Amino acid sequence: MDRLLLQTKSKTLNVPHPSSLPSQIVKGRGLKMAYYGQPQQPGNQQFLWEVFQKVDKDKSGAISSDELQSALSNGTWKPFNPETVRLMIGMFDRDRSGTINFQEFGSLWQYVTDWQKTFRSYDADNSGSIDKHELKTALTSFGYRLSDKFYDILIRKFDRSARGNIAFDDFIQCCVVIQTLTNSFRQFDTNRNGWIEISYEQFLTLVFSLKC
Q1: pLDDT digits (tens, 9 = 90+) for 9-25
Q2: Threshold 0.85, pTM exceeds
């Protein structure tokens, strides 16, 4: 049997549009951009340039994934999720150089700032992380109708700390992955009824074509 019948709600996730990084806080001598920080200064190119230069440690004129990861804070002592960094660089690296130049950095800054606001709005207990109930509230407001069992799967998948909740960087990855999967599903859901019928090879093509 080489055909699969899949069902889900083919919703569009209303998440921050790829458009810059959250507010800066200074820890010691190093710049840290975190989801809890001082108010940013949108539209201030001089301010963004100063931040860009601090993140660009090797003064190459572009920000690498390692430099971006070290500049981002997720509110824990663990390094910022490398998969989330990879996803964001892939979104904003328009010239496919593998790095982020200053023009691309402005959009990346706004993107993470938007995620900062989204994360804080659903972190109801101000714990600095999202638990199962808060994640369900967030995704339900985005338009998804998912079972409690599936939320258990999401928490296990994206909870890198094994504490039963997900941090800021993992929350971004979770939402981006779900949106990517939804977009792929919608390509086959031509009737927009939440059902698709595809061959085994189509399923494999869908999975291996995902950029998440």
Answers
A1: 444 444 444 333 233 22
A2: no
